[in-house]
Amino acid sequence: MLHWFHWLQNTSFATGIRQADLLFPLIEGTHILALSFSVGLIVMLDLRLLRLAFKSEPVSKVMHQMMPWALPGFAVMFITGIVLFITQAEKAYANTFFRYKILLLALAGLNALVYQFKFYPHMKDWDTAPSVPAGARFTAALSLGLWIAIIALGRTMAYEL
Amino acid sequence: MSLDQLWQLSYNSKTVDLLRNSKYAIPLIQSVHLLGITMLLGSLVILNLRLLGLGLRDFSMKTLVNQVWRWGVWGMGIAIASGLLVFLPDPTRYAANTAFRVKLVLLCTAILYQFFVFRRVVRSEAAEVASTGNAIAACFALTLWFMVGWAGRAIGFLG
Amino acid sequence: MKTFLMIACGLALPVLAHHSFAMFDMNKDVTYTGTVMEYRWENPHSHIIIKIDDGPNAGTWDVEGGSTAIMGRQGWSRVTYKAGDKATLVGHPMRDGSKGVSLFYAVTADGKRLYHDIARPKAEGAGSSQ
Q1: Neighbouring chains of C at 3+ CB pairs within 8 Å?
Q2: Residues C130, C121: Cα–Cα separation, whole Å
Q3: Are C13 and B27 in contact (CB under 8 A)?
Q4: Which of B24, B28, B92 is closest, CB to CB, to C128?
Q5: Which of C8, C44, C64 lies at the smallest CB-CB distance from A161?
Q6: Domain assignment of residue C1, yes or no
Q7: What is the CATH number of the domain that holds C47?
Q8: pLDDT digits (tens, 9 = 90+) for A66-115
Q9: N or C: which terminal CB in chain A sees fewer CB atoms within 10 Å?
Q10: How many CB atoms lie within 10 A of CB C15?
């Protein structure tokens, strides 16, 4: 695995970006600012499930209004994230904070799938109900917690030499 | 008291010293800063997509403002408070950084715009329908605030 | 919201216990003279891996500089050093004693100083000791 990461980060593509004055911060900045289009929007759905925002709106409406913009946002996060990883594959791989970040990202993805397959099909039952099923509320709380941790871990990566 | 004296006072203070010397404080505070920024920019994306007539059109502007404006303000408060805590342990270094100075100017402009112009625009009846005026107001808001974000990134990369 | 923040930070903390942070003692200036093992000109930080054969600082050190743009403005380039070069680097060591340094400046063969960023020694007046 390490050999492949070493090769990857020494390709001219990776080296070019890693040594570029403007391109590197541009890609990294996009990765961070795209959080507003991804996490910033998905949080609204989580808040609705927890009845902390959009209380008088159907859950499905919040979801269907936010997702068309959140999904491209996550795509941008993913693509810029992969490019950034490639430029320092070996170092990132060895970085403890990065490893936890990837683990939590996987959990966040799994959590989203759980919501999609377990709760989304029955959403119309409690779309406008005064309370949301405990399981759905749990996925929302977990989502919020995970994303806060993921953002913190991403930032903290820089502090391991 | 001159600006330099003010920075020296901050640099020497015991509380600030605690911040600077703690292993975990600075990364933690910077993470909080990022969370505040995400909250703020997220709210701005929602409001401006609607103002531009590009998205979230099933919601009235009124609903979105009622639901999302306060998260934006909280995000701003958190970002500013945490930003101050990043700045105070090392004021001379940041004060001398061009990108930081640009960021502060843009930030002040963005805050003034947010509370004196944008707030009025999104709360007016005219905000419900897309128009050239609304589009200009939206583009201005997004550009200003995202430029603050970019300037923040430039602090460490471009100086 | 606050609870989530605390939980999230709690998740990150056990990790902090295992590895040292890049917390440098910015008030200490130490000179490291040795042989360059690796010169990594890159973002987000350039690195000079330097090997010191004897003396109190014997060992291999990771001297961390700045971005290519910031270092470039101070006179650094992709070819300032290469493996095998002799180098004298002044910097701030890690607080926990591990072999990591935050670069202050390098002294070139002809005695010139290549700074990491705009910070200059306190005696000269401008900026703080970075």
Answers
A1: A, B
A2: 9
A3: no
A4: B92
A5: C64
A6: no
A7: 2.40.50
A8: 999 999 999 999 999 999 999 999 999 999 999 999 999 999 999 999 99
A9: N
A10: 15
